[in-house]
Amino acid sequence: MDDISKLVYYNNLFQIYQGQLSTSQREVLSDYFEANLSISEIASERGVSRAAIEDAIKKGMKKLDALESDLKIYSKQQKALKIVSELKEASKDEADKLIKQLEEVLK
Length: 107
Hints:
This protein is mainly α. It has 2 domains: 3-70, Winged helix-like DNA-binding domain superfamily/Winged helix DNA-binding domain (Arc Repressor Mutant, subunit A); 75-105. The chain has 6 helices and no strands. The protein has helices at residues 3-17, 23-34, 39-46, 50-71, 73-89, 92-105. The protein is elongated and about 60 Å long. The two termini are 28 Å apart.
């Protein structure tokens, strides 16, 4: 996964799971993902070292990974979006099969 794809992935996970993070993790990751601040900018703003911010970001991303591993909300969303995209191009018979797949994903 390249850097841009990784950033988009974690930003999506953050949007889904931010309520499950501690206040400090949520604030640091919000600065990093949503405000697009650099590690140096976040550290300066908070009066801490860059290493502390790097550590907070790594721990926050690890927590996001754990949440996704357990709950799989992002994965289900991506599967559902793929099926919906296929539905737009599908024949009636194909659509019925895709609808069943979508129902399984959303369970």
